[in-house]
């Protein structure tokens, strides 16, 4: 009796043959790839870790010696099977079971970082108090462990750390009453040619609110003393509620200038030499002022300069988002956050400064 293939059986055989051919081509490619890798590696021994040997041993045992000889190129079948035998032996090796490891378990990195953070932010805290603070958030740690962690980081015990208060800690402690002052310069075309103008600004560190105190070609002592009186005026002075004013060692901030500040209970904080990073807030303000306004314009006369600064300061306070304030506006208007109304653009300085808002219906 003749066996007649059904169409579906013939189709199945064709598909199976095609799949088998595809698999053989993949295997052949992998064999060639392994051979190339082996030739590239040369006669040097290929070093594997335990996990890599385990994976090869498990898969190699499934294939068996005969098929390993057909597809394996990097390692011999005996090597693969020897690894598998070792895995089996390790599985049934009970010699280390039930033994308790000596010593205390290692502290997680998260706990170590928390200890370091607390020590840096609280210079007067001792080991016990730091350990208690860590315990309050769910981590049990001894004072001796705290001591070891701080010693590894080069952090001194509490009495020494207390005498080494960081600049960041100082700023945070006086956040509400702290301001900074500094000069920047800009070139202006005048009848006498290109002239350097000195621009003096003050900034509140907490709010980032800034104040343009004035500009001059010669910041002499008389001009500076008048600036000090304006800043400390009891009614409208920008520094009337500030107790400390950060400044650099520029001789323009003369003794008479500082004396007027002291008389109004605003203590000058003079920075060490060559330390611009300690006045980073006003330096960051200057970078924005220059990149967004001063460096993009040519000024003809003092009036054009003052007008540009006036426009920028309005934009800075009521229209510009600030990263240091969590992307908020210093003095936001009522239109901020509205979801209804037509979107409009308010331009300043001929489109150099743009503000997008919704017009109230």
From TrEMBL:
<dbReference type="Pfam" id="PF13683">
    <property type="entry name" value="rve_3"/>
</dbReference>
<dbReference type="Pfam" id="PF13565">
    <property type="entry name" value="HTH_32"/>
</dbReference>
<dbReference type="InterPro" id="IPR009057">
    <property type="entry name" value="Homeodomain-like_sf"/>
</dbReference>
<protein>
    <submittedName>
        <fullName>Integrase core domain protein</fullName>
    </submittedName>
</protein>
<feature type="domain" description="Integrase catalytic">
    <location>
        <begin position="155"/>
        <end position="340"/>
    </location>
</feature>
<dbReference type="InterPro" id="IPR050900">
    <property type="entry name" value="Transposase_IS3/IS150/IS904"/>
</dbReference>
<dbReference type="InterPro" id="IPR036397">
    <property type="entry name" value="RNaseH_sf"/>
</dbReference>
<dbReference type="InterPro" id="IPR012337">
    <property type="entry name" value="RNaseH-like_sf"/>
</dbReference>
<dbReference type="GO" id="GO:0003676">
    <property type="term" value="F:nucleic acid binding"/>
</dbReference>
<dbReference type="GO" id="GO:0015074">
    <property type="term" value="P:DNA integration"/>
</dbReference>
<dbReference type="InterPro" id="IPR001584">
    <property type="entry name" value="Integrase_cat-core"/>
</dbReference>
